[in-house]
Design a protein that fits this description.
With 108 residues, the protein is an alpha+beta fold. It has a single domain, classed as NE0471 N-terminal domain-like. 18% of the residues lie in helices and 25% in strands. The protein has three helices and six strands. The protein has helices at residues 49-52, 74-83, 96-100, and strands at residues 8-14, 18-23, 28-32, 56-58, 63-66, 70-71. Strands 1-2-3 form a three-stranded antiparallel β-sheet, with helices on one face. A hairpin with a 3-residue loop joins strand 1 (8-14) and strand 2 (18-23).
Length: 108
């Protein structure tokens, strides 16, 4: 049985090498990736805050990426985001029919 990988649908770069990520299952959470600065030569460009700020969602891998073929494992990001969830405002959508059938209010 194949395990479905989570897909990143939105990324916001926060201060101090943190990312706010939203996934296709509705999870939104903050992920601290400051440890990548010392994780090897491939991640060295991310030491530059301007380079780090250029994070985007790779359309092929559906995960966070940076120029220079740098990307991160979506499963690990999802696990970390789960530990640091952010409450998001969800709008309740009303059906037009639900309000059309309300009984009028009678005032006396």
């Amino acid at each position: 049985m194949a395990v479905r990988l989570p897909h990143v649908t939105a990324v916001t770069v926060l201060e101090h090498y943190k990312l706010r990520l939203t996934f296709d299952d509705g999870l939104t959470g903050d992920v601290d990736v400051s440890d990548l600065q010392d994780a090897g030569p491939i991640f060295e460009p991310l030491r530059d805050p301007e380079c780090f700020a250029r994070a985007y969602i790779d359309p092929k891998g559906r995960t966070v990426a940076w120029p220079g073929d740098i990307d991160l494992d979506p499963e690990a990001l999802h696990d970390e985001a789960t530990r640091h969830q952010v409450a998001t405002k969800r709008r309740k959508r009303r059906s037009p029919l639900a309000t059309a059938h309300k009984a009028p209010t009678v005032r006396r």
